[in-house]
Design a protein that fits this description.
Elements lengths: L9 H24 L6 H22 L3 H36 L5 H10 L9 H13 L14
Helix pairs in contact: 1-2, 1-5, 2-3, 3-4, 3-5
């Protein structure tokens, strides 16, 4: 059996996980300060962010395959929740704008919705970015079995 080579990117992985932790903490703080917990749809990202924070710390403390797989699953979920949040924010903004400006439609309505401050249609994209960046931190992680490029 060939010995496992040392992880040349260990320092970079730790730095990336630290950036993920800061992003998670900032996003979680933002949602709590904005009182983003009026219903289940609003509580979901808060609960997920807390779970993601714990999973990031857990991965940072060790590097078993189970930790990496759990982390990847949750970060994939973060991407899905972020995309869902963008859709929900957009739909809420469109509802408000069409009530306020019933004659507005097409491109003008789209711009009005995405530029609106409440709800910010693109804000949940932060969870998408964090999830994708976190997934990059586990690319070719040494705790996972190496894949044969010929296969």
């Amino acid at each position: 059996m060939t010995p496992t080579p040392p992880d040349a990117f260990a320092g970079l992985r730790r730095l990336m996980l630290a950036v993920v932790l800061l992003g998670l903490l900032g996003t979680l703080s933002d949602l709590i300060l904005l009182k983003h917990y009026e219903n289940g749809w609003q509580i979901a990202p808060i609960a997920l962010l807390a779970l993601l924070f714990g999973a990031t710390v857990w991965l940072g403390l060790g590097s078993g395959a189970a930790r990496v797989h759990c982390f990847r699953f949750l970060m994939g979920l973060s991407v899905a929740v972020g995309l869902t949040g963008m859709l929900l924010h957009y739909r809420g903004g469109m509802e408000f704008q069409t009530e306020t400006y019933p004659d507005l439609g097409g491109w003008k309505l789209f711009l009005k919705v995405v530029r609106s401050k409440s709800p910010p249609a693109l804000a949940p994209g932060a969870m998408v970015q964090l999830g994708l960046f976190a997934l990059l931190a586990t690319y070719r992680h040494p705790a996972l079995p190496a894949r044969d490029p010929a296969a």
